[in-house]
Amino acid sequence: MVWGETMMQVNERIWCGKFPDDIQELRDKGVKFVFALDWKAGLVTGDDIERIVRHIPNPYRYNAPPDWSACDMNEMRETARMIVSKSHEAPVFFHCWKGKDRTGRMRSMVEAFLDEAVLA
Question: How does pLDDT run across 2-30, given as a tens digit for each residue?
Fold first, then answer.
């Protein structure tokens, strides 16, 4: 899959991308937890899916280079830990509005935590 498609698989229990147009796609994957990295994105989930909002400011603004200093890296690491932790309970999907900038950065953090767990 390429960035911008609705869902990309991180591992067998973690998915990421842009918020899907149809949440049935989440249900089909067994997703029970949705982490919204943008408080405006994906306001509707459903009774069977828990929405967790962890707003990460968008570092891309006004055609300027990305400014990651606007993001609290400790909060981003804690969000990545939460995603991995919740994935032990049930499948997880995390997203921002378009599923590329914040989601891409979070995906690399989630993958780093998953790699640490394998090496431990």
Answer: 444 578 899 999 999 887 777 888 888 89
Q: Which two tokens stand for residue 13?
A: 């229990």
CA dihedral for 96, 7, 83, 105, sign (positive or negative): negative
| DSSP H helices in the chain | 24-28, 73-87, 101-119
Indicate the pTM of the whole model: 0.83
Question: What is the DSSP code (8-state) at residue 66?
Answer: P
Query: How many CB atoms are closer than 10 A to CB 61?
Result: 11
Exposure of 36 in the CB half-sphere (CA atoms within 13 A): 16
Q: Specify the residue for token string 């989440």.
A: 26
> Which of 47, 44, 53 has the alpha carbon at shortest distance from 94?
53
Residue 10 dihedral angles phi and psi, to the nearest 5° = -90, -50
